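General statements about sequence and structure are easier to judge against a single worked case. For one protein, we set the task of working out the C-alpha cells from the amino acid sequence alone. The sequence in question and its C-alpha cells are set out directly beneath this paragraph.
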Amino acid sequence: MEENQKQWYVVNTYSGHELAVKEKLEMRTESMGMQDYIFRVIIPETTEVEVKDGVKKEKVKKMFPGYVLVEMIMTDEAWYIVRNTPGVTGFIGSSGKGAKPTPLLPQEIDRILASMGMSRVNIDSEMKVGDVVSIIDGPFKGMSGKIDTIDSENNRLTIIIDLFGQETSVDVENYQVSKY
C-alpha cells in the first residue's frame, strides 16, 4: 500500500454520539485546513421498512452503532486530529502504544458503501472517459481497460477490455474498478 493514499478507517465513538463526531470532525477538518487529508466521514446506515398497525414506516438504523467511517490519508497530523475529536474513543485496528491503525480492506468498505448506494470511488471527480482502470472484482477481475462511458446516476461504467485479442465492452459497477 502506498503511504499517502486515501483509505477508510473505522473510528470508535461514544454510543449515540456518531452524528456529533461526524459534524465536529468535518468542522475541524475545515478549520484546520486538512481537506487534502481527511475526506468523507460516514455513519453507515440502512433503511428498514416497518409495518405497524397496517402503516408502513421507514426507519433508519445504524449498521454499526458507536462507529463512524473516515476516508483519510493517514498522516501523523490527520491521525491526531481524528483521535482528538470530542466523542472519539479511538480507531479500530490500532494496538495502541502509538501504533497507527490498519485501514479497512477495499472489499470490506465496498460492501458497506454499496449497501448504502455509495461507492469508494467518486466517479464524478476521480474518473473520466478514456482513463485506464483495473477491474478488481467480478468476472473480469485482473483485467484492465479504458472507460468508454460513465453512468454516475447508477454508479456504473462501461469499460473496453481486450478479450482474446478483441475489444469488448463490459458493464461494471464503480466499486469493481480501481484507477491506475
